[in-house]
Amino acid sequence: MSERLTAKQIKQDIREDEVQSFLITAIERFQDNPILYIGVVVGILALGVGITVVAAIMDSRAEAGQESLATAMRYFEAPVVEADAKPDDETEPSFATEEDRLAKVESALSGVSGSAADIAELYEARLALDAGDTEKARKIWQGFLGSNKNNALGIAVQLNLIELDRAEGKNREVADRLQQQLDGTAKTLPEDVILFQLAKTRQALGEAEDAKDLYQRILDDYPTSPYAADARLETTSG
Question: pTM, whole model, 2 decimals?
Fold first, then answer.
């Protein structure tokens, strides 16, 4: 299975009952080879809930809090329908309104305990972001990084914060931080990820030539990176 598998391909090619096993394997192997498996992590970030499920399974298999987290997951993914809502369905719930769905998610999250509570916080951040409360989301993500900076979920959260900063027009600050990581020895992101994020930020700042140099560096130093295809497009366009 390709490390450049996209979220869409995952949904299409992997049966629902295999997803958890796939993600668990990817994250466990990520610890040994982050450069190779960052493609898997980035690809499944779009699944959102899926990656948090894996962490809960890995860290909280024996905890009662996992059941509450699993329930919150189901509610989080449940559709809002115009008729025949089934909020109490144990396998495929649905809701008449978005407010009803969110209320059930928050209620389930309140029952999460133990180490699964760290994962529940990521749901809280997503709910805050959906509600437009970016400061609350930022605070949760920053708190999460206190003990999770160097694992797969920590990388996902760092990317979330980078995207949030860029969305808020903080491109110069983002570029400076990424450049410091690139130049330093204590990196909290794989180097090809830093290069790609820095290139995107340089582009947003209008520094096209610097961005192209960074994309070329990905091709030169990390030809098998999951970012290589995008980098190649950027170096050959315009």
Answer: 0.67
